[in-house]
Amino acid sequence: METKQTLTLIAAIGSNNALGKDNDLIWHLPADLQHFKNSTSGHHIIMGRNTFESIGKALPNRTNVIITRNPNYSVENCIIVNTLEDAIKIAENDNNPFIVGGAQIYNQAINLVDKLIITEVHKDFEADTFFPKIDKSIWKEVNRQNFKADEKNKYDYSFVTYLKN
Question: Does this model's pTM top 0.85?
Fold first, then answer.
């Protein structure tokens, strides 16, 4: 019996849907970075070129797939494609590939994915890129873990999972 693939979008967003500013993260939450690593390890991670360049290197123990319109773009240890559809096709043998950003890719992917894993950072941030609004008529919250700020994580945050209705 064939296992159905679950295509998951994973993101960390501010209370005002802020994603980033100047091609960088606005906050530093070690717990979120660990959550991202634990969730995506062993899977394909699909991202736009800007997101890849903000990370700066291929992430270990994952198949890094970069979407770019530049036909000459090349990065060691990464798969380069030109469209989100091509990226998803590359990951067809992975039972749970992840869309990891940025804003353009999230906007293209949000209606294609089966699951959202969102870290809600409980603060409004000044940003130049934003996550698309999560339409509660399409998405049902199925899990939420709330955390208070501590010595390592400067802001209150929640790990929230949504499934398509």
Answer: yes
